[in-house]
Amino acid sequence: MLMRTDPFRELDRLTQQVLGSASTPGTWSRPNPMPLDAYRAGDEYVVAFDLPGVAPDAIELDIERNVLTVKAERRPPQLADDVEMQVAERPLGVFSRQLFLGETLDTDRIDAGYDAGVLTLRIPIAEKAKPRRIAITDADSHKQINA
User: Fold this and answer.
1) Which range, of 6-10, 25-29, 40-44, 62-66, averages the lowest pLDDT?
2) Which helix (H) or strand (E) holds 46?
3) How many domains is the chain partitioned into structurally?
4) What is the pTM of this model?
5) Which one, of 74, 61, 70, 64, lies nearest residue 5 by Cα?
6) InterPro entries under this entry (predicted)?
7) Measuring CA to CA, how many Å separate 147 from each of 2, 110, 138?
8) Is 20 within the bounds of a domain?
């Protein structure tokens, strides 16, 4: 089972709304800097992170004790010397997000793909967590009753 993300993120979001803090360079002003969708598809969970404008080599995935950390960096565009920026609203910098994964997921077999600014993770459900049928034997005849 996939579990809720960092609980302090909501507190930060509420604080920003109440205090009306302005965004500073290198920070995100949106509530979720890395919005995601997560769903179960058969025997795996799929998690899709929106990372527009982030190069694939600027994304890091780490897992430690069932905590998956996604870290990404949106770098400033390489502009020619004679170009003068007029508007710069897209946030730049390093940002991260953590997912706390349940014990029923196989974290050794996570598959990650990146296409069109979307990082998609496929996390299989562990074999030990899948439902299985248990055979019953007849104590007198030592034959299996069902399989």
Assistant:
1) 25-29
2) strand 44-50
3) 1
4) 0.67
5) 70
6) A-crystallin/Hsp20_dom, HSP20-like_chaperone, Small_HSP
7) 31, 32, 12
8) no
